[in-house]
Amino acid sequence: MPDNDNVVTFRRFDPENYRWDGVELEEYKQHRGERPGEAWRDITRQVIAGRFGEPCSFRLRYFEVGPGGHSSLEKHQHIHVVMTLRGEGKVIVGDDVYETRPFDVIYVPPMTPHQFVNDGDEPYGFLCIVDGDRDKPQPVSSEELERLRSNPATAAVMRVYES
């Protein structure tokens, strides 16, 4: 039986394509959602660490949001630590909007509504560290959605589609 404490993985980065060797390029989520805030557009995910037998309690993921794309507006019990690597993006965290550029870091607290938006013309990419064992995304409540809509800063950035 292998000793997982001594597992070594190495993933070569390709700066031309923002890909790591041996890492699958995946859709952001399997499910697009039907409730307000659950929709997303033009975003991919790569799980870089925490999926290959490393004995870590976290996942290191890279997300890339295409021009005009966005993540879903959601919240979780677990935290996120996010570092922008490529391009610029806007991040809603609670009632605030942050404009990020490469190497900016943002902490997303538990149960805080958040969304990543690319209003630019270039790809927006970021690393995201989360717990390996974590809860599924939860949609924002109708009260949270109304609060975000009534805030001019978040309303101008947020991407929410009603069915």
Structure in words:
This protein is mainly beta and 163 residues long. It has a single domain (27-157), classed as Jelly Rolls (Sandwich). Helices cover 9% and strands 40% of the residues. It has 2 helices and 13 strands. The strands form 4 sheets. It has a 6-stranded antiparallel β-sheet, with no helix packed on it. The chain has a 3-stranded antiparallel β-sheet with strand order 9-8-11. Strands 1-2 form a two-stranded antiparallel sheet. A hairpin with an 8-residue loop joins strand 4 (41-49) and strand 5 (58-70). The longest helix is centred in the C-terminal third of the chain and has 9 residues, at 142-150.
Which helices and strands occur, and which strands form pairs?
Layout (H helix, E strand, L loop, with lengths): L12 E2 L4 E2 L5 E2 L13 E9 L8 E13 L3 E2 L4 E7 L2 E5 L2 E5 L4 E4 L5 E4 L6 E8 L6 E2 L2 H9 L1 H6 L6
Antiparallel strand pairs: 1-2, 3-4, 4-5, 5-12, 6-13, 7-10, 7-12, 8-9, 8-11
